[in-house]
Amino acid sequence: MEVMTPRKLEAGSFVRTANGHFVGGDLAIVRSHEEFLFLALVDVLGHGPQAYSTALELEEVILGWNDKFDILALMKALHEHQKQGRGAVISLCTIESMTGDVRYVGIGNATCRTMGEHPHHLLTREGVVGHTLRTPSVERLNLDQHDILLLYSDGVSSHFEIEEPCQLFFDPLDNVARRVVETFGRSHDDASCIAVRYT
């Protein structure tokens, strides 16, 4: 019987505040668990200290959530938390190291896409967490070996093409995330990106 060898998931992130602000409402969380990688990208409505304060509250909820594989329940909990708050665009994702199985829930105008032999965009539902949450659902796909997954906020142009995409498959992932934000980000808005490589 052939034994499957877990592949390696490498990840990096980068967050930049809007021009004129020292803090902002974007937040990128990457946590490695025994069998999967957990990603969360938060983009609180607005900018500056108030958005930053809300982002910290949401970070506390996310990091304190026990079952991070249950991203649907976590999204609903974040919605309840923000019902009297500013509201936020939130994306949650898990990637299994053994199979490359991606599970994704996104609410609002963030983008989750893969780059590789078979590029793909995952569906992000319209709405604002805390204000308008239609019935969320989990989108799924499988990563192929060497695929790159990019998760980025609306401070980054939703559609872009990288002139030298091959570099994405070799550069450190923090550098990849930073490059996406600095090259395709809007200076007047908070911008964030998480990059994952499956090898």
UniProtKB/TrEMBL annotation:
Superkingdom per UniProt: Bacteria
Residue ranges annotated for the PPM-type phosphatase domain, each copy included: 10-198
One Pfam family here: SpoIIE
SMART domains per record: PP2C_SIG (SM00331)
Protein name: PPM-type phosphatase domain-containing protein
